[in-house]
Amino acid sequence: MPPLTYVPLGERPLRRLPQLFIGLALYGFSLSAMVRASLGVNPWSVLYEGLEHHTSLSFGAISATVGVLVLLLWIPLKQKPKFGTVANIIVLAYSSDLGLLLIPQHLGLPARVCLLVGGVLLNGFAVAVYVGARFGPGPRDGLMTGASATTGHSIRLIRTLIEITVLTAGWLLGGSVGVGTVLYAFAVGPITQFFMPRFAYRGGDEPDVPHSSCPASGSRRGRRPPGRSGS
After folding, report:
1. 13-37 and 83-102 helices cross at what angle (nearest 10)?
2. CB within 8 A of 23, min separation 6: which ones?
3. How confident is the model at residue 59 (pLDDT cuts 50, 70, 90)?
4. Across 51-60, 134-143, 200-209, which has the greatest mean pLDDT?
5. pLDDT at residue 63 in the model
6. Alpha-carbon distance 44 to 181, whole Å?
7. Is 40 in contact with 179 (CB distance < 8 Å)?
8. Which pTM value belongs to this model?
């Protein structure tokens, strides 16, 4: 797994900014696809729904509150909010609303199954794309990358454990769970793990190798001078 630590905004922004915003837009759209599938939302939404039964806060207010609490969990993981963290909050709000406008409601079961499977696949892919830009992850994905870096365990394992924990807490609080929720909890981690090495920005971590140290120069050191062979 390549490093996922923050890379300053000024390093190759024309290469990394499009990746960040495309990944976030796809992430928001994937959430809309799973909502329109009506076969179970992701574990975090189950948690929000469960908390909604026990508080007077709205779904959106609970989402924001949980986001702040998750940021507090970054402190022992030595994570800090970055540009990508703020972009996550803003872009997801608009892209998910746009997805809900574009995807029709009340579809047949085959179409809903396709939306569910496609939404889960797109979600894991989008996480790898936007986190791989290395502008800093969103609150929940920062918890994933921070825990992975701290414990040394894979993104796949950490993400799956987080999703299962959140799903269990939401279900115990009264949130609704569907087949899509279980599929998301177990599948998004491996999907993200698969795509992450393909999209993680590496430019800031690859050492510049001067041409003089290429194998060609090393081969010159291994040659005998002409006329001295066999002596």
Report:
1. 40
2. 126, 127, 128, 129, 130, 131, 132, 133, 199
3. low
4. 134-143
5. 74
6. 9
7. yes
8. 0.73
**What type of residue sits at position 143?**
L
CB 134 within 8 A of CB 201: yes
Give the residue-averaged pLDDT of 13-34: 92
Q: Give me the mean pLDDT over the 106-111 stretch.
A: 94
Amino acid residing at 151: T
- How far from 112 is each of 38, 117, 151, 192, CA to CA, in Å? 7, 9, 38, 22
Q: How far apart are CA 168 and CA 182, in angstroms?
A: 10
For the chain, what is the mean pLDDT? 82
Nearest-angstrom CA–CA distance, 205 and 202: 5
What's the whole-number mean pLDDT along residues 192-202? 92
Please report where in the chains the tokens 């909604």 appear, as a residue. 52
Share of the chain above pLDDT 70, in %: 86
Is 159:144 a contact under the CB 8 Å cutoff?
A: yes
Q: In whole angstroms, what is the distance from residue 37 CA to residue 16 CA?
A: 32
